[in-house]
UniProtKB/TrEMBL annotation:
Residues 1-60 are annotated as: Disordered. It comes from Prauserella muralis. Residues 28-49 have a biased composition (Low complexity). This is Uncharacterized protein. It comes from the Bacteria. Residues 1-18 have a biased composition (Basic and acidic residues). Residues 50-60 have a biased composition (Acidic residues).
Amino acid sequence: MDGKRDLAPDADVDEQRQPVRAGEAEPADTPVPLDADPADAAEQAAPVPVDDEDDYRPGS
């Protein structure tokens, strides 16, 4: 064991170990927008240039 388990609060650990019970899910109060901002989508679609000097992958 790595010793980090002792850092978790007991109430959270107990709650996370309980099985999911059907029918208890509550719908979200706030609607979630499913459409993306066109500027954000374009920025994320842009390719990122590869710089060989900054390549820290092992074995290269």
